[in-house]
Amino acid sequence: DIVYCLLITFSYSPTSVICISVAPGDTEKDVETLASKVLKMRLWDDEAGGRWKQNVQDINGEVLCVSQFTLLASTKKGSKPDFHGALGGDQAKELYQLFVSKIQQGYAAERVKDGVFQAMMEVALVNDGPIDYIRNVGRAKRIEIRYLQARNFEI
C-alpha cells in the first residue's frame, strides 16, 4: 500500500482554502474561469476597514486547494449520499491539476499549495470570519468551490 503523508503549515498568513469538485461536462474553460475568479474574489477588508475590498493577491495571502468530490453529493434518495454527480478518477484529476496550475500561474506558485488528489486527508484550520462561499461554474453549473478564509491551518 502507498501511504501519503503531507504536512503543510502556514503561520498566521491570511489564506483562501479552496475545496473543489468537478462534474461530468465540466471543461478546461470552466476551470480557467474558476481559477481567475478565485484570485479576484474580494474577501478581505482594506487597511481603512472597508469591507470586501481586497483579494488574496492584494494581501499577499496564501491559497490551499483541496479536491473534495463530496461537494457534489446528492441526498435526494435514501439515507446515504450518492456521489455519481462527481467526475471520476483520471478525468477529475486532470481538471483539478489544471485548476491548481492556473492558480499558480495567475498568482505566485510558492504561495499556492494543494493536497494529494484522492487521498484521505485530515485538514485542520481556524476559520477566520467565518466566510464560506459556494460558487458554481460551467455549463452544467456543477463545478463547486468553497471559499474559506483561514489562519493557521495544516494538512
TrEMBL record:
Recorded GO CC terms: cytoplasm
UniProt-recorded name of the protein: D-aminoacyl-tRNA deacylase
Species this chain originates from: Lachnellula hyalina
Pfam families in the record: Tyr_Deacylase
Enzyme class: hydrolase
Family matches, as SUPFAM superfamilies: DTD-like
Taxon lineage: Eukaryota, Fungi, Dikarya, Ascomycota, Pezizomycotina
GO molecular function: D-tyrosyl-tRNA(Tyr) deacylase activity; tRNA binding
Family named by the database record: Belongs to the DTD family.
Subcellular location, record wording: Cytoplasm
Catalytic activity: a D-aminoacyl-tRNA + H2O = a tRNA + a D-alpha-amino acid + H(+); glycyl-tRNA(Ala) + H2O = tRNA(Ala) + glycine + H(+)
